[in-house]
Amino acid sequence: MSAVHLKKGEVIDLPIRRIGINGEGIGFYKKQVVFVDGAVPGEYVSARVTEVKKRFAKGKMLRLKKRSSHRVRPTCPVYRECGGCRLQHIDYPMQLRLKRELVEEAFSRYTSLDSLPIEETVGMDRPRGYRNKAQLPVRWKSGKVRMGMYSAGSHRLIDYHDCEVQHPETNAVLKAARQVLEELSIPIYDERSHRGGVRHLVARYAFDTGEAQLVVVSRDSRLPREKALVEALIRRLPQLKGIILNVNPHRTSVVFGENSRVLWGKEKVTERLGDRIYHLSAPAFFQLNPVQTEKLYDEVKKAANLTGSELLVDAYCGAGTIGVWLAEGASKIVGMDTVPEAIRDAEYNARQNGVKHAEYYLGAAEDLLSAWVDRGTEPDVVVADPPRTGLGRPLIETLTRVKVSRFVYVSCNPSTLAKDCDQLIRGGYSIKRVVPVDMFPQTSHVESCTLLEWTGSGSN
């Protein structure tokens, strides 16, 4: 489908049919796909074409000719500049509906399924102030330390640190840390010259225990006035339980470096989900929305349907949260991850929760599982919570070869989820249930829990 007849600068009128993965409205002009930021499905808009590609065009909304009843006024003052909460202009019930449609659209595009057993999106009662972790870049400008989010698609810093989706305590920790850096004239990193020290501030807050952790990410392994920095921080932030210096000396957009050092306090913070206790080091992955995490993990437990006799593999185990959550139903748990700190956290968390039948290994899931299968170890249930890039092909091939009875796929990317499921369906699995979970209200992101079972049929 070509959009070559559209011209940049042309003004067009078009209906908005659905939403895109980045929260933009998607409309059609004479059968041509047009993405319009800020438009809501059901609206009719006038837009100026800003970009023309082979398969689509982009437009800037000029006027609402028909307004959706689901449009609301965004409450964040930097909503349009920041680009983080791309759905804040849509009421919450409609956000939940649209996220379900995003998952449906991905499966429609990347699989040949005639029908998808998908449920309604699991939402939040209070869809703000839900994030337990924030990592913000800092810059030195006009004699001030600036801190905030990058504008969408750029490295232009939006100086703002009272984010509505962050827990107030993470905002408070970051705000105080920025002020201390400025008062003590701690050198700030300049990405153009690759000089200076502090690159990011990272705050994590444990909702249940009230413990906070601050990570200062720096190009240098030593900061000037470290003692004064620590003293000022603990004086202003009594909720702090640990201050960590993480060293990232490379030219990269990746936040964390490989080495960390405790400047003061504890290396880990303690969090609870239900009756489970988790101890988290700075680089370890942990879900950012504790309230919804319990709902998500309960969906995983329902899908796994453990009876007490199964060998459970927790691929991409992170700090071991899913395995510990499911521990009572499994005869043995085997977890794996590529982050050494995560494996240490998983082992520690298993011990702290009295889980004695769990083993954790450092390495890629696709490599370890394949090797174990070759040695005769065959899991009954596999749970995977991979990064946005999805499952590796070797892991898909291993799952197809081992014919695991139940595979529970936790995904934060509908596109890679659908693509991977298509390969698994071709290999003999059948999709039994898809449950979208809204882990990130006000954004276009959607998590989902998908249950696949081995049928050997090669199709649904």
Structural summary, described in words:
There is one protein chain. The protein has 460 residues and is α/β, with parallel strands linked by helices. The protein has 3 domains: 11-71, Nucleic acid-binding proteins (OB fold (Dihydrolipoamide Acetyltransferase, E2P)); 103-124 and 289-454, Rossmann fold (3-Layer(aba) Sandwich), CATH 3.40.50.150; 133-273, OB fold (Dihydrolipoamide Acetyltransferase, E2P) (Beta Barrel), CATH 2.40.50. 25% of the residues lie in helices and 32% in strands. The chain contains 10 helices and 21 strands. It has helices at residues 79-82, 92-110, 168-183, 226-236, 290-304, 321-326, 340-352, 365-374, 393-402, 414-426; strands spanning 11-19, 25-29, 32-36, 44-52, 57-66, 133-141, 144-150, 157-159, 198-205, 212-218, 240-247, 259-265, 268-273, 276-281, 310-315, 330-337, 358-362, 381-384, 406-411, 429-437, 447-454. A 7-stranded mixed sheet has the order 8-7-6-9-10-11-12, with helices on one face. The longest helix has 19 residues, at 92-110. The chain is globular and about 65 Å long. The chain starts with 10 loop residues before the first strand and ends in a 6-residue tail after the last strand. 45% of the residues are buried.
